[in-house]
Amino acid sequence: MRRPLGVALLLVLAGCNPGRTTAAFFYAQGRAQLEAGEYEAAVRSFTRALSLNPVLAVAFNDRGLAHYHLGQYQNALADLDSALHINHQLEASYNNRGLVRDALGDYRNAVADYDQALLLQAEDPLALNNRGLAKYHLHDDESALADFNRALQVRPGFVLARNNRGLVHLRQGQPDEALADFLAAMRGDPTLREAHVNLVLVYDQRGEYDSALAHGRWAQRLGRPSAIGFNNLGMAFFHLRQYDSALAYFDSSLARDPDLVLALSNRGIVNQQMGRTAAARHDLQAVVQMGTDPGLSADARRRLARLRP
What we know:
Layout: H1 22-35, H2 39-52, H3 57-69, H4 73-86, H5 91-103, H6 107-120, H7 125-137, H8 141-154, H9 159-171, H10 175-188, H11 193-205, H12 209-221, H13 227-239, H14 243-256, H15 261-273, H16 277-290, H17 294-306
Helix pairs in contact: 1-2, 1-3, 2-3, 3-4, 3-5, 4-5, 5-6, 5-7, 6-7, 7-8, 7-9, 8-9, 9-10, 10-11, 11-12, 11-13, 12-13, 13-14, 13-15, 14-15, 15-16, 16-17
């Protein structure tokens, strides 16, 4: 499962004058393309820069970011390793390599990279936020909370850290604190899709389904939701007994992330509710076979035992 929340990326500022060297020109071109979201073009520009200057660490770093955005994680790791081999003091490359490892689910090594980034720049709110999110995925909630709190002390208006802290509060059974953080993140940046996605979950749990759907629609306007975003929308429609819509959202969630066991479990429950016994059995058996969440696996076994032959 890929990350349900936004992460902060670091671009390295290079003291290059594009008018002085050809490598610098292609590097600057790549930077502009990277910031514009033209990732394939950025890879080509950084590659051209590196062909002219093979020890330009910042070009390796930023090409690694472009590969990261393209989902080419092994290429990204190779580039970030190269950047750090050339300059082991490049704090941004530790942070960015941590992001790649996060995307690969390698959270412990991601934490190690963020630790190294913070040794080089102790008050970096981006690295604090990213380390907190990796620790959240490792279920180290207290350490995650400490990182998010520190990031917010350094940068009080840091909406990503505020949003992510809300996730910790939610898992710790503090829905009011979670709601306050998600709302503050949304007010700080109304375009932060992750905050709207998380508000869907909180309002759904509170039984405020109209509010949940309203934020779900906002999240959709801001771009295609993540797998967890589709799942949360499906839950809101499920509680409104709009099962066809719920099923469509769970299908969309699993199309984005086939390994999201929560969406698979929820789809099985909807199929069961709709009397679609064969489909429900298929989904619930898959939850049991995956075995990645003991609670969901136990619930799936109970539901399978009640299904008609």
